[in-house]
Amino acid sequence: MKQTLIFLTTLFFCQLAFSQPSNNNCANATEICISKTKSGTTNNATSEVCGTCADGSMVVGSACFQLVKTVWYQFTTNATGGNADINVSGLNCSAGSNGLGGIVYAAGAPCNSSTYVPVSNCVVNSVGNFTLNATGLAANTNYYILIASDSAGSCDFDISISGPAVVLPASTLVISSSAGATTICPEDVVTFTSTTTNCINPTINWFVNGGYEATTANGDPFRRDYFVDGDIVGAELICDCGPNTGSNQLTMSVHPYITISAGPYTNIPFGGSTQLKGTGGVTYSWSPTETLDNPNIANPIATPLGATTYTLTATSIEGCRFFDNVIVNVLDSIFVPNTFTPNSDGVNDTWEIKLIEFFPKAEITVFDRWGQIVFKTIGYPTSARWDGTRNGTQLPASTYYYTISLSIDSKEERIKTGSVTLIY
Q1: In percent, how much of the chain has pLDDT > 70?
Q2: What Å distances lie between residue 320 and 283, 313, 316, CA to CA?
Q3: pLDDT higher than 50, residue 97
């Protein structure tokens, strides 16, 4: 039974701790500022029997109420200081409650109650609206407000602040672009930043042509990667305290697109070359550069060793960059049929070697089974295809053997060998 009571008691206090107001202690005092009403409660605030809570006898001597269920607020004065009124209204207290009390303190050291000095009247057991009149407040200084109810009950309430000591001058907002100007190239990524004054915890809402884009903290960038000429970038300032300005805006001017081309898809034989065909720009730059004779002209000679995608960067007269790609494919193989039917029926009558036209200096030699040459040619255009004859005489159906040398412009020779069968 004793263990059960300990468990239930521990559970009760844990549940109580989890339901305490967020501003139950000085370290978590809620910031209040002019024109912003906050809702509060003393329900489940800690009592003075709690050894770790902020309530206690150290501040009783300067308060007119017993600090049993207290919640904490704070505010900061402006550059002038003076008087401020803390208004507590909308009280809704539980049955048996004696109402609320309140006082404003200056703190010599933050959250050190032994340094607190009262700077307002002290209200005790109020069941209706009341005002704490804080006078002679120093400029740019933080002050604490204690609101308390007694052990008999708790209250919900609203709290706000007014007066010359907390009136802030008008806020300002200025936005600027990363380029330092509003004239840009198409598809430029533009970064915008904001600068504000007289605004506590500013946030910025960003708009393009009136449509919402993003929300950022003050100083954080807003980026966008596409604009059209005449787009309007606007920003709206939101402050926790103080008056807000409307919005600041920039009108974007966008240079026109130009049409560029890197040229058509191209096939070349292994070891061959081709001239790239860039058009549309004022200046040109190609990459990769390793297999080009001059990467900074419109029409460089490309000699790739394998299939390569070349990227063209062309600039307009305004200095805007545009991009296009072209593939140069390197044919490092041919397709050699192993049969054909030279029977003059108009179908498959000659030995057609696929892609051989990309190797204009290929040397093709065909042998019979005894090693005698029956056909030989350098270059293999359609008119020179082997038709199954030797010196105009039809050869018998049989298997023949070939070598094909793909030597190109004195580069390394590559030889393919195999057999081809004549079928009648």
Answers
A1: 88
A2: 10, 10, 5
A3: yes
Helix (H) or strand (E) holding 309: strand 308-315
Q: By the 8 A CB rule, do 419 and 401 touch?
A: yes
* Mean pLDDT value of segment 223-247: 84
φ, ψ at 34 (rounded to 5°): -60, 140
Q: Is the pLDDT of residue 4 over 80?
A: no
Predicted TM-score (pTM) of the model is 0.56
Q: How many CA atoms lie within 13 A of 284 on its CB side?
A: 23
Rounded Cα distance, 402 and 188, in Å: 59
Highest averaged pLDDT of the listed ranges 25-29, 141-145, 147-151: 141-145
**CB-based contacts of 62: which residues, under 8 Å, 6+ apart?**
103, 105, 116, 117, 118
Confidence of residue 1 (pLDDT cuts 50, 70, 90): very low
3-class SS letters over 166-221:
CCCCCCEEEEEECCCCCEECCCCCEEEEEEEECCECCEEEEEECCEEEEEEECCCC
Tokens of 80: 């002038």
d(CA 225, CA 202): 25
User: Are 406 and 413 contacting, i.e. CB atoms less than 8 angstroms apart?
Assistant: yes
